[in-house]
């Protein structure tokens, strides 16, 4: 798929980083595109993913983050350590209450940013579907103009099974003070600041 919905939201995520952060954890990092963007901003980045294939690819590209093969639901995360924890299109691969492990690993004042996927249709699909088709066509055309390229390795995908209202309810219960913003391309942005 030429237009990547997750990569599309990287600039939004970068705009939501807290000022002055130094340490970051990217959960379900895939081939590491967002982890590298954090490293380029000066963060010391740990990046985790249980897939041996994507971690091998991430390490081959390099770019600063410490890529580790690990399942975040089992990994012992350092307590109160990270200034930023990001989780892009991966929370729906795990039980939702994994967010409490991530909350515990946040340093005081740290920020958790989840770019999440939800189940079910919403009224936004009326706009999202044509916008998606247009974006895909534009990216496809520009790639053709620049010449053929090797398709990138795709990390494992899974269908989400939680609907947006359930995500909002669970986020409010487990992460009081968090916000969940509905985004156009079948995504939401959960933001939580640990006080
Ligand atoms: C759809 S991919 C997203 C990858 C990347 N964040 C991106 O934006 O391209 C979901 C990733 O979550 C990873 N994942 C699945 N279960 C996980 C777990 N328990 N702990 C950490 N990562 C997990 C998968 O291996 C996969 O690479």
UniProtKB/TrEMBL annotation:
Alphabetic keyword roster: Methyltransferase, S-adenosyl-L-methionine, Transferase
Pfam family, one: Methyltransf_25
Keyword Methyltransferase (UniProt): yes
CDD domains per UniProt: AdoMet_MTases (cd02440)
An example molecular function term from Gene Ontology annotations: methyltransferase activity
Domain Methyltransferase, chain residue ranges per copy: 25-110
Lineage top rank: taxon: Bacteria
Claim: Transferase is one of the keywords in the record: yes
Gene Ontology biological process terms, A to Z: methylation
InterPro entries per record: Methyltransf_25 (IPR041698), SAM-dependent_MTases_sf (IPR029063)
Gene3D superfamilies in UniProt: Vaccinia Virus protein VP39 (3.40.50.150)
PANTHER family assigned: METHYLTRANSFERASE (PTHR43464), UBIQUINONE BIOSYNTHESIS O-METHYLTRANSFERASE, MITOCHONDRIAL (PTHR43464:SF19)
Protein name: Class I SAM-dependent methyltransferase
């Amino acid at each position: 798929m030429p237009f990547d919905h997750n990569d599309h939201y990287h600039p939004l995520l970068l705009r939501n980083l807290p000022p002055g952060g130094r340490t970051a954890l990217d959960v379900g990092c895939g081939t590491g595109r967002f982890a590298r963007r954090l490293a380029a901003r000066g963060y010391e980045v740990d990046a985790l993913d249980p897939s041996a294939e994507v971690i091998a690819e991430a390490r081959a590209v390099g770019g600063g983050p410490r890529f580790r093969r690990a399942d975040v639901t089992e990994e012992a995360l350092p307590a109160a350590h990270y200034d930023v924890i990001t989780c892009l299109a991966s929370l729906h691969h795990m039980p939702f209450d994994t967010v409490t492990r991530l909350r515990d690993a946040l340093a005081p004042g740290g920020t958790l940013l989840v770019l999440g996927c939800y189940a079910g249709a919403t009224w936004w699909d009326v706009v999202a579907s044509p916008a998606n088709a247009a974006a895909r066509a534009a990216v496809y055309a520009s790639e053709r103009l620049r010449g053929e390229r090797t398709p990138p390795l795709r990390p494992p995908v899974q269908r989400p099974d939680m609907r947006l209202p359930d995500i909002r309810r669970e986020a409010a219960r487990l992460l009081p003070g968090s916000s969940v913003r509905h985004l156009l391309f079948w995504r939401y942005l959960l933001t939580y600041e640990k006080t």
